[in-house]
Design brief:
Two copies of one chain form a homodimer.
Chain A: H1 22-30, E1 35-37, E2 46-47, E3 50-51, E4 53-55, E5 64-70, E6 73-78, H2 90-97, H3 101-119, E7 131-133, E8 138-140, E9 147-148, E10 153-162, E11 165-170, E12 182-185, H4 192-204, E13 208-219, E14 224-233, E15 247-252, H5 253-260, H6 276-286
Parallel strand pairs in A: 1-6, 10-14
Antiparallel strand pairs in A: 1-4, 2-3, 5-6, 7-8, 8-9, 10-11, 10-12, 11-15, 13-14
Helix pairs in contact in A: 5-6
Chain lengths: 288, 288
């Protein structure tokens, strides 16, 4: 697939068997070539447009997150239960935008797991303090033995389409002029297609008649799975939910193309390249 | 879309604004027509092929889960923090199979949220006991103010395809003769397509060259989002991960059709109609 999707393409072999085999894990950690990702407060170290790694020095087992293998070299990150996630600043996002998607995908994997550890130190089932388990890919409760796994929260992000125009919206928190696709969390008891239809109806009052899947992306703030779709809708009458959106409007192919190209007279500011909303606009243009 | 997918099509208006508006919620609960889903230990009451409801009697706010509206009538379920989920017995699955998909979808919504409450009574961030919030669609920690939301765990389920045959596998726990599509949880830091490729490689040693999305389904045991795909693979040489699969084999369209029709000489027992694996086989046959 030639569509560019940010945060995909991490060149990781996740080496999943080592998560369940303490001897295999110990051998990877003892490998003199093993590397540790530089991730203080979840901001990546970057050198020459790539993630920065340092030689792995011995760490307690409960601080070791096995990311996997890259170029057959074991790769780890350090679980710091006291870590406080750095905010998603424009500087951080510019830094990630300077990385190739595959490098950003490695960062995404590490960030989502480390941030989950920092925010899930206790057992949701019984309240006891838990400890990292399975090479950092789980936490185990020593009291009730419940295993907890990192969350991956599916989110639908979609363009409503009517007579060769698509609906874009902006939240009050967006930068001036910026518009994007509409989005929302998939809830239990609904399919992707039903979540797309529900969110479009809740936020914009439009009625989906069919939904087609386009692409997906991991989004590490903190751990969404972004699922991009295009929905045909029954008409173009919009009823905004002002609690969710400040404005919404229909745009043509020419207007989307001008915005993606950041032309001076573009009618909206497009989402950045690393966001799947950008890929979704490109996919829609490519579907002609 | 004419493809049958179990657990989809719930006729629920989720009435999301009422989750955030105590007065609106109270009005729905006070509506004399309001109904309560019969869900003792998460087994649905069923009458005449449909879910059984009883008139809502006053409940403490922290026991009220607002499912939404059906036919403009408010629908609730009762949050019982002491509930113990009934096992997924053949009897329960036969009961669900007797329901239309939309009815099973309402059950799926209720079961996933109620089961989440029963297993998430404490704050993962600080260990304090939490309480239901937002009409049962969240839990709030009274100590650190963290809001917790129900989990929806994305799972990929896929057929590897090579030269007009697809790969099916069986776990040791399956009923004799039963085979299905391969499956696994989507992890943080990967897209749907990457999860499909990783799982196929981990479990069967095959290499995906392209992945196409087919359909999705909520699965309420406890709260998966099943994402069904077909992956073209580079060859048909299978290397089984025996920790995951007991056997795998390639089957033709005729063999899949015979299995779906439960013909006596079928080479495998197909998954039941309510499982998206069944829909996936039907989609593959329909793609000819």
């Amino acid at each position: 697939m030639s569509l560019y999707v940010g945060f995909t393409g991490a060149p990781l072999d996740r080496a999943e068997p080592a998560r369940h085999d303490p001897a295999m894990l110990a051998a990877l950690a003892a490998n003199p070539a093993a590397l540790l990702l530089d991730m203080t407060d979840f901001v990546p170290g970057v050198a020459d447009g790539a993630l920065a790694w340092t030689p792995l020095t011995p760490l307690p087992a409960e601080e070791l997150l096995l990311l996997g293998l890259i170029d057959n070299i074991p790769r780890f990150a350090r679980i710091d239960p006291g870590a406080v996630a750095a905010k998603r600043t424009p500087e951080l996002m510019a830094l990630l935008d300077s990385l190739a998607a595959g490098e950003a995908g490695v960062y995404a994997t590490a960030r989502s797991v480390l941030d989950w550890h920092a925010r899930h130190r206790f057992c949701a089932n019984c309240g006891a303090r838990t400890a990292p388990h399975h090479a950092g890919w789980a936490r185990l409760c020593p009291v009730c033995s419940t295993e907890h796994y990192p969350r991956t929260d599916p989110v639908v992000i979609m363009l409503a389409e009517f007579e060769d125009r698509v609906l874009i919206g902006r939240q009050a928190s967006f930068a001036p002029g910026r518009y994007s696709a509409l989005a929302g969390f998939v809830e239990v008891g609904e399919s992707i297609e039903e979540a797309v239809a529900r969110e479009l109806h809740e936020e914009a009052g439009v009625v989906a008649t069919s939904v087609r899947y386009i692409a997906s992306q991991p989004w590490p703030f903190p751990s969404q799975l972004m699922i991009a779709c295009i929905a045909s809708v029954a008409d173009d009458v919009v009823t905004l939910d002002l609690a969710e959106l400040e404005d919404a409007k229909w745009v043509s192919r020419a207007e989307v193309a001008a915005s993606l190209a950041a032309e001076p007279d573009a009618v909206f500011g497009a989402p950045p390249r690393y966001a799947i909303a950008n890929s979704l606009f490109n996919a829609w243009l490519g579907e002609i």
